[in-house]
Sequence to fold (294 residues):
Amino acid sequence: MESFLKQNYQNFMIFFTFLLFWFSIQFGEFVEDSVAFVMIVSIGILHGANDLLILSKGEKKRNIFRKHLTIYLSIILGCVVVYLISPFVAILLFILLSSYHFGEEHFGEKITVNKIFNSIFFTSYGLFLFMMLFYESMADVDEIMIELTGVTFTKYQIEISLITSSAILLLAGLYIVLKKMYKLEKLLKEVFYLGLLFVVFKTCSLILGFAIYFIFWHSIPSIINQVEFISGNLTKESILFYIKKAFIYWGISVLSLLILYQIIPQASLFSTIVFAVLFAVTAPHTWVMYKMKS
Fold:
């Protein structure tokens, strides 16, 4: 099962990307967003629900686990404090952390030049994805940003970020190909994937476009890596064990999300609460994944 999933997941990922791309053409934004929310709330939140189990697995000594647990909870508290002080700064941090996290998950096992190069490359990759998505859905981004922070990004800021991140990716990509650290055909395949995602972002609603990448290109591959780290293999039993262990934390997260939506009167968009919850869990989850991969 392990080899089958690893060898065929890319085909599975592309198939469902095209399927949801077709789906977005057939149905309106309400249906698109409803499907996207179900995907994010189920698989998206699930993929970060076993952080504490991963920390306990990585560190056998109880005092070290307590230290890491304290760091984990402190990061969450820090995110809340930053958001209360400056929601706009908090969103910028969310985008940068998510960008690095997306890039690390996608390229972490493929590109290993050095820490500085890797960090810049990973962050540029994720930032390029975000800017493509934002550029194609500016009106929706404005609506969510105004509700979250009271201000929004300008078209110029998005365009500059898009151009800068693409230039860094191009130069870094040429460097690793010329240095024979990465095969040209693999790089061209990644360019094709980015082109495919651009078409998806252009056609789908903001939420569905984000969900397609977040679930099929990030969360499921991350779950596969986490299952292997926790159980040592990838079998039906190890996947069920992962889901069982994550269920309580997943349930708490979903319940918290629904309660926040009910008690925060100014949050007219459910997507606002979803992104706020994702921000609160992204920072500690990124740290845990870094520890796991290290």
Observations:
- The chain has a mean pLDDT of 85.
- Residues 2-293 form one domain.
- The chain has twelve helices and no strands.
